[in-house]
Amino acid sequence: MIVLHHCHETRSMRVLWLLHELEVEFQVRVRPFDRSLRDPEYLSLSPAGRVPALEIDGETLWESGAIMEVLCERFAERGLGRPPGDIDRPDWLVWLHFAETVSQHSAALTQQHIALREDAMRSPVIMRLEAARLRKCYAAIEARLSTPVENREHLLTSGFSAADIAVGQAVYMARHFAALDDFPETARWYAQITQRPAFLASLPPEGAERLFARDFYPAWDR
Ligand SMILES: N[C@@H](CCC(=O)N[C@@H](CS)C(=O)NCC(=O)O)C(=O)O
Question: How would residue 222 be classed by pLDDT, with cut points 50, 70 and 90?
Fold first, then answer.
């Protein structure tokens, strides 16, 4: 049995979305997003105490990008990966892992706006800087989606893939700190992929404790 260790609205959501797309049997172990990720029991699954961790085929994996590669290879028939030799393989790898470039800024902003307990600990400079760096990431996605190829609806020319899932989920987190208003192609793509039933199934269920209590956290203006 595949077991995903997951915290709502974090990077593990991209693995959850992928598992739903793959239509395989799996269990989700929802964990609170707190110090319990440092308990020895969880550190034995994920040595730095991070989510996601995935138990599969008697092994435990961590790092969302690696987990997504493994799942796409293991369930290759679902067509969400691009195997070696595929013309879109290099772009698939680039975009799959670009999700982490986006998410590092969301993680810094989550720390600034949510994790730090006292206002005196927060830095308006870091808030503005990290939000600006998110917009640079949006610009990269916008440029890609504006590249004139026929039917450019997804990040890859060959259509929907795990790269859209990884970057789409990274944008899900990022939108809490930087709006998509100036990025029309990215907004269109995001609206389209997040209608997918597998994305909707990866959202926190009604009543669950969410990471993001608000839809948007503006940078402090001082
Ligand atoms: N590069 C790793 C990052 C994992 C990561 O830092 N996950 C965050 C949630 S988005 C986490 O577990 N944070 C808990 C902590 O830092 O204590 C991945 O993509 O899996």
Answer: low
Q: How far is the CA of 102 from the centre of ligand 1 (A)?
A: 13
Which atom belonging to ligand 1 lies closest to the Cα atom of 65? 19
**Atom of ligand 1 at shortest range from CA of 33:** 14
Q: Which residues pair with 55 in a beta bridge?
A: 3, 60
Domains for the chain: give ranges and CATH numbers: 2-78 (3.40.30.10), 89-196 (1.20.1050.10)
Q: Which residue has the higher pLDDT, 222 or 133?
A: 133
Measured distance between the N- and C-terminal CA atoms of the chain, rounded to whole angstroms: 51
- How many angstroms does the Cα of residue 29 sit away from the middle of ligand 1? 16
> For residue 47, how far is its CA from the centre of ligand 1 (angstroms)?
11
Q: Nearest residue CA, atom 1 of ligand 1?
A: 63
